[in-house]
Design goal:
CATH topology of one domain: Rna Polymerase Sigma Factor, Chain: A
Strand content: under 5%
Structural class: mainly alpha
CATH class of one domain: Mainly Alpha
Radius of gyration: 24 Å
CATH architecture of one domain: Orthogonal Bundle
Order of helices and strands: HHHHHHHHHHHHHHHHHHH
Shape: elongated
């Protein structure tokens, strides 16, 4: 077997099984640092052995067995570590009593490696950790990103990200954060944090906060993969289905969001034949399921969750054969419900843009100006960009130019900056 083929096999297993492998090791040994060390050693061993011996029938099981043997060797050599892990094992045993919601997770993923990833999701996204640490750990532990890759995702030096990850792991150890799935009474409070982290990873992929690229396909793919894993582990949770639907429906437009020169294209400028039909269809099925399940499960408002509603809005956009035939009344109605379920200035901003499309730019501008007066989105470039567009459509060129300039002061990534600059130059030339 060639070295290249062996490396490709290890890479494939690594990307698909890293989270399961790491979670199984943390479950057994109770220490994230140890689990990462021995998992990495197992991958290195595979790169040495598989070219000579061939890829085993169950590569994930081979890696798990190899990693376990390595961990036991380390524990025999380091009595202090063994003692600490023995104490942590008490917490792990207690936590193991919490049943997985929705029945046995991972039963379809193979019997050789237990699927403990749901516990790892909730460990990485524990509320005792800062949001940036939750996101970094999720990418590191569940997506299998290297520290350098996580650093690039956050646009910080690798050394800085390494320190953040070390601090987060230390917090888990010192606070004795349990490696467990929350009980049914806790799940409604803890699950939104997990969903938020995956959503933030995807948001950064969709429009990078800074840098030369608009899109981050690597982050988009990993966010969708993480959402798929979570949906397999919690198939009965409507907001998990809603999040996966949202990501698929938005990502379906990825290929059409820029032209051949890499310049940003707005929704009404995109070539819809380049949208991904399979992702749209899968997203539509999921959003229907999420809306139905959310309506049945909500006893307080009878309304579905925030991600299901955002997915429904994305589905209306994706179903329109062209921009002129978008069902703006339905989109505004969905935003009205979303404002009740998840009130925020960002929802108000998006609703105002939809109202402008339904009722005209003057009506939408009034709503945007109210947001400006309130000052809740002062540092957000898209508020000023939206105002500039409506002012341009109303023929108020000087005010539009001022709004474009303000948006340019706030924008982070270069493709959006170039787009706003072109709009401003076109306005000046007209």
């Amino acid at each position: 077997m060639s070295q290249r083929r062996a490396a490709d096999s290890v890479e494939g297993v690594f990307r698909e099984e890293w989270g399961r492998l790491l979670a199984a090791l943390v479950r057994q040994f109770g220490d994230l640092d140890l689990a990462e060390e021995v998992a990495s050693d197992a991958v290195a061993s595979a790169l040495r052995r598989w070219p000579m011996d061939g890829v085993p029938r169950s590569p994930a099981a081979w890696l798990l067995t190899t990693a376990r043997h390595r961990a036991l060797d380390l524990l025999r050599r380091d009595q202090r570590l063994a003692t600490r892990l023995a104490l942590l094992a008490v917490d792990a045993d207690r936590a193991a009593g919490a049943p997985l919601p929705g029945g046995p997770a991972g039963s379809g993923d193979g019997e050789d490696v237990p699927d403990e990833r749901l516990r790892l999701f909730f460990t990485c996204c524990h509320p005792a950790l800062r949001l940036e640490a939750q996101t970094a750990l999720t990418l590191r532990c569940l997506a299998g990103f290297s520290t350098g890759e996580v650093a690039r995702a956050f646009l910080v030096p690798t050394a800085t990200m390494a320190q953040r990850i070390v601090r987060a792991k230390r917090k888990i150890a010192e606070a004795r954060i349990p490696f467990r799935v929350p009980g049914a009474d806790e799940l409604s409070e803890r699950l939104p944090g997990v969903l938020r982290v995956i959503y933030l990873i995807f948001t950064e992929s969709y429009a990078a906060s800074s840098g030369d690229a608009l899109l981050r396909p690597d982050l988009a793919d990993e966010a969708i993969r993480l959402a798929r894993i979570l949906h397999r582990l919690l198939p009965a949770e409507p907001e998990v289905a809603g999040l996966l639907a949202l990501l698929l429906l938005v990502d379906a437009r990825r290929a059409a969001r820029t032209d051949t020169a890499g310049d940003l294209l707005l929704l009404d400028e995109q070539d819809r034949s380049r949208w991904h039909p399979d992702r749209i269809e899968e997203g539509r099925r999921l959003v229907v399921d999420a809306l139905r399940a959310g309506h049945r499960s909500s006893q307080r408002t009878g309304a579905p969750g925030r991600y299901a509603l955002q997915a429904a809005i994305a589905a209306v956009h994706d179903e329109a054969p062209d921009a002129d035939r978008t069902d703006w009344p339905q989109i505004v109605a969905l935003y009205d419900v979303l404002l009740v379920v998840d009130p925020s200035p960002l929802v108000e901003l998006n609703r105002a843009v939809a109202v402008a499309m339904r009722d005209g730019p003057a009506t939408g501008l009034g709503l945007l100006d109210a947001l400006v007066t309130e000052g809740r989105l002062d540092g957000y470039h898209l508020l000023q960009a939206a105002r500039a567009d409506l002012l341009r459509r109303l023929g108020r060129r000087e005010e539009a130019a001022a709004a474009y300039r303000r948006a340019l002061e706030l924008v982070g990534n270069e493709p959006e900056r170039a787009f706003l600059t072109r709009r401003l130059e076109t306005l000046d030339e007209s």
